[in-house]
Structures
1.
Amino acid sequence: MAERTVIPARHKAYITPVPQGIDPLVAAALPAAALTSFFPLTGSAGLRQDETVLINGATGVSGKLAIQVARLLGAGLIIGTGRDKAGLQQIKQLGADAVIDLTQTDLQIQDEFAQQAGKGYDIVLDFLWGHPTELLLKTLVPRKAGFATHTTRFVQIGQSAGANITLPAEALRTSGLELTGVGRIAPEVIPAALGQVWHWSAENKLTMDIEKIPLADIASAWQQKTSGKRLVIVP
């Protein structure tokens, strides 16, 4: 960590100046977290107006921003999941239409996944993986025999609930599930994406919890556990 650094010339395409009026703390913390949902929603998942979006793991930093970004991009129904009850209340204020508490029993969680889906989830942004995702995928399998009647574009982003899952064959065979990662991000699309994030930030349409930590306290900050906020190290 340093006050100044050298950026190799080959990374020039990824560099975008911070516009005037943007708080340096916001500039350091917000864009990268916001782009983890912006790129999937505008790229690999291809969000269309009024579609239903599930944010699996919405009470973390990136999940909270995903709720806001999905709303700004025109999502219809937005559902967020999480284990932190205060965080679940917060994402309602940020734009979630409904929340699913992952501290419930497996059966209760599956029932809520099915109930909140309505006619089906169009897009799932998954920041969790692990057991919660296994429960979600089970609910996507139709109970009646036949071909899939609904397509769910599922984008795997994070693994805070576990690095591995058990994936039954039927979860792919009959569910209409399209499972992808974030995908390749071409350097040429980054400036425009960042420009949109800067624009939303300037209009106070994106918010996140940030804690400022002096560089002199980096040793203790490195061990500090955070929930739903970003630590920004300052000189």
2.
Amino acid sequence: MTDSPDAEVLLTGGRITPGVVRVGDTVRRPTTASSAFVAELLAHLEQLRFTGAPRYLGLDEAGRDTFSYLPGWVPAKFRRWTDTQVAAGGALLRSLHDATRDSDLTGGRPVVCHHDPGPNNTVFRHGRPVAFIDFDTAAPGDPLEDLGYVAWTWCVSSKTTAPPAAAQAAQVRILADAYGLTAADRTDVVTAMLDRQSRNARWWADRLTDHSADAEQITSRIAWSEREHAYTRANHATFAAALR
């Protein structure tokens, strides 16, 4: 017996939008306040033949946003990545930013940022990052907003089992090199990491007012963000030195 091609399979990896399902070669998700912008952004990327994002396919019969399904592996948890994977992630982010630069979508800002380009929102094939998904938080911004987030979530960890700060800093440099970051912008990468860690803690703190949310899980994510911020601040000099 085979499953119906119209069967809905719940996708549980997302942390923000509930009710995301796969139907055949498509992904369906409830509309949000950002749906119109995301649709316009993905249409723009498709027009430029950018392959590192899903295609927007319109609304389904239930009024849900519909996207093409990108085959591959999406990590459920943060972990240590190889230098090659980090470099590929940096190149992918640069290609996304370049595809939006000078477009009408930027609202006068340098690029459109994904704003949540962690490994958990990245599709891997054959061990290599090839696309970003979940563009709900995409908005005009500065490249360093995404660079700071990627440097943190792909390269840095406060866990006692993680490699020493010097090894983590070496990967942040690999990321900056792969992205093609200018010497002037490199001096701001650590500040950008700290900013994204603080913003992440504040974002989750704001979710505590949602009585339908899991307060214990949210409190854990706030505490994690704060630990990561303290670790990055304590090793600021090590990270900064690697970027010179």
3.
Amino acid sequence: MDWLNVFVFLLLIAGHTALWVAYVNRTHALPWRCPTLHRLRRFHDVMILLGPVLFVVNVGLTGPKLLLGGSWSALSPLWWGMVGVCSVGFVLLATTSLGHFVRRPPSMLVSITSNLVDIAEHFGKRPVENGKYRRLALLGINEQFHVEFNEKTLLLESLPREFDQLSILHISDWHFYGTVGKSFFERVSELAAEHPVDLVCFSGDLIDNMQLVEWIPDTLGQLKGKHGNYFILGNHDWYQRPEEVRDAMTRQGWIDVASQTVDIEIGGKVLQIGGDETPWMGSQPDFSGEADFKLLLSHTPDNYPSAQAAFVDLMLSGHNHGGQVRLPIIGPVYSPSRFGTLYASGTFWKSPTLLHISRGLSGRHPFRYRCRPEVTRILLMAKN
């Protein structure tokens, strides 16, 4: 066995895998319906396994027999092309992993305090029902029921003094599907409601099963912001019956800001809140009116460039779930974004817009590893 070539093969297989992951991440950022996305995902599943098998069998063990001491000079032009493509994939993987490792939050993020709550411990068992992914939810390494309640202090130059200490509860991606029981969401809502806030903002993906719209009053219905609750929907709501979801939310006093802006006056200053559900629904909100501070709810962080162009001060997003699984060294793997895993979660600054991306609370596939679900209370600070 040629162990040097074994090592090279492993690097090439890693590059091959990275390219197929990049393919599925970017196709899942497009406004396509579930059947199409499922077919693309199945193609990815086949190719991500078939490619390494063909390479090992046709190049490593037969043909040039590179794993058995053969020479690379015997490699055909076709396989040299595959080696080149996989090498590009490995460079992409290494660059992306290094980026996650060295990236630091912007200076505007002044402080973070976290309280980790084991929801399963509260009930004495995991709140799992007989849903499709029950076994996945019950896996021992699953951190789905370890919820981080975070408080993040953000210092913004553009924030009026009148808005100093303004608090926002940012929640996203609850995914009522049925595997994770209603009691989980009720308990999280109870804990979130213990700390008063000025605004409550939900940035999309609530419903994966229309029968569970009836959960809204006992969950999100518990939350009350001093200056209102604001929401948009996401792609998973779009897969269902979004207008019925909107109606259920508005009946609980939530304000739908999708494709529009709403102005509220606080201390004599105007806070303008807009909602962006594109590319799945509606249009981007018009922030051209006079406002002292602009807040955007956008389900996907892919709309970050348009938020900058609109001079949005603070953008709140979700959608990518932090990747749900974060591997050591590599970081997040799957993130349905045209930017790949760059905006999986966290806080980012590109003038003039500060972007906060929630890891969300649940998912259609209720599994988390090194990527706990989160509920975040944001405290805004004025610089002067």
4.
Amino acid sequence: MSPSTQTIARKSEATAQPIRLSRPPIRSGSSDIQPTDLQRPQTWKDLPEAPPREWDRCSISATYKPSAKWVENRKDIDLPLPDDAPEVATVARSLALHSLNILLGHRPASILRPWLTPDVFGILSRRASLAMRVNGPAPLAQRPRIHNVCFYPVRERAVEVAVVAHDGKRGRAIAMRLEYLREKWRVVALEIG
């Protein structure tokens, strides 16, 4: 650096001061809450109660627990899909729609028995019967409908599906894993949120 630029740099360093941002002063008369009123709770019993939430009858999470009967049928999961296999998007759309209708109490759970593995069917039917005992059938203001279906092939005969649906009251996200077992698409995992 030349001597003239050094002096200019020193002058600019001397004049530069940090900018301080300050909060406006707190006025004691503007609020009814005094600082002494705000205390940290000592135990969990001192916490305020959470507002009650409505029970969600359509929320379900059913996963696949392999049994010996189904494991032997999963050996051919990497074989190519047969030409006469139904289209995954239409199967997933109808399965999601029927699942919502079952959980809302508008259809019996037995209509999906051939399309679900025994573990998933057991969880779905128990949840549907619980919803019927707690609230009865949901009011049929608007029929459930499917907005979007996206599917992602995982293996040759296994597909994961994401469905966006509306149950007549609120929007739902449905995730399924479909596997082509015993010459039919079957749901081996189902989650509705």
